[in-house]
Amino acid sequence: MKILKCIIVLLIITNVGYAQQKPHYTQYILNNYILNPALTGIENYTDVKISHRHQWVGLQDAPVTTYFTAHGPIGKQDYKTNATTLFEMTGDNPRGKDYYDDYQASAPHHGVGIQIIDDKIGPFSNFSAFGTYAYHMGINSKTNLSAGIGLGISRFRLDPTKLNFGNNPSDPSVGNISAAESKFDMNAGLWLYSDKYFVGLAVNQLVPRKLIYSGDTSIGTPGKLVPHFFTTAGYRILLNEDINLIPSVMLKSVGGVPLQVDVNAKMQFRDFFWLGASYRAKYGFAGMAGMNLLERLTLSYSYDYSTTKINTISNGTHEVVVGFILGNKYNSDTCPKNVW
Predict the structure, then answer these.
(1) 201: which residues sit within 8 A by CB, 6+ positions away?
(2) Which residues 6+ apart lie within 8 Å of 67 measured at CB?
(3) Least CB-packed of 61, 254, 292, 338 within 10 Å?
(4) CB of 210 within 8 A of CB of 223?
(5) Tens digit of pLDDT for each residue in 37-80?
(6) CA–CA dist 125, 203 (Å, integer)
(7) How far apart are the C-alpha atoms of 18 and 310, rounded to whole Å?
(8) What pTM did the predictor assign?
């Protein structure tokens, strides 16, 4: 009995204690909104994205994350007065030198959005839903600053039917495990952006909370939800009139675990397709590719290869992101104009 109780405690602490409790994303560079609510309403259109991530394929009960996000501006007045040409047409590159020479900071405006995230790993799952709000303002002719907040609910669940206790499946401590527990959740962030760079600071899981799945307090101390801090920065380099290169870095800080460092590079050809690569320190590498389809649809894919021992029992990580552009007044905005 005591051995089995210890196993449950170890499982809970491993997954919801001081380890990283929020999902990993490889293609966050294409949707920084998933990490930072300050991006709410940053573009001239409603940005909708659906993503599915299968981590460590081949490993039983490995993490699987699916999300839906949608956000758009309110009162944004900086729409272009004329549409530039698309990739298939003759004329200037919509993301060429002239485009960014004419870049102007946004007039003050608001943004609203929604995030729905379903994250599963083994017997544990976390379903979250947030409403987000941000306010954007220009601080000089080409630089914008936004602040955002996300409020919502995270519902944590431990499925005892997925716990394997060998010859004693009717252990009383399992019977005391509750089906689910809902917690108030809060995210916040800042985003500084211009025609050439972006810098962001965000915190997820802002309100620390205790988390316990069993009414039997003798099985050990409860887990604890801790804040996750993200610092992001990137810079746009115009290699020539057709190609943009955007190197970026992200630092992720979670109490009790080593600092995570991601280094990324995204190369975009006109407004049509892009290639990218990422390195996560002490974990491995990733490659990604994407393109614009039908002027209002984007599709991208990434593959992670781990250099850790997990690679001996898994076949890497796959992630797909599908994006929809809604309510776009001008065809020139078939990709985000704000650097990434």
Answers:
(1) 36, 189, 190, 229, 230, 231, 232
(2) 34, 49, 50, 51, 115, 116, 117, 118
(3) 61
(4) yes
(5) 999 999 989 999 999 999 999 888 899 999 999 999 998 776 44
(6) 21
(7) 21
(8) 0.84
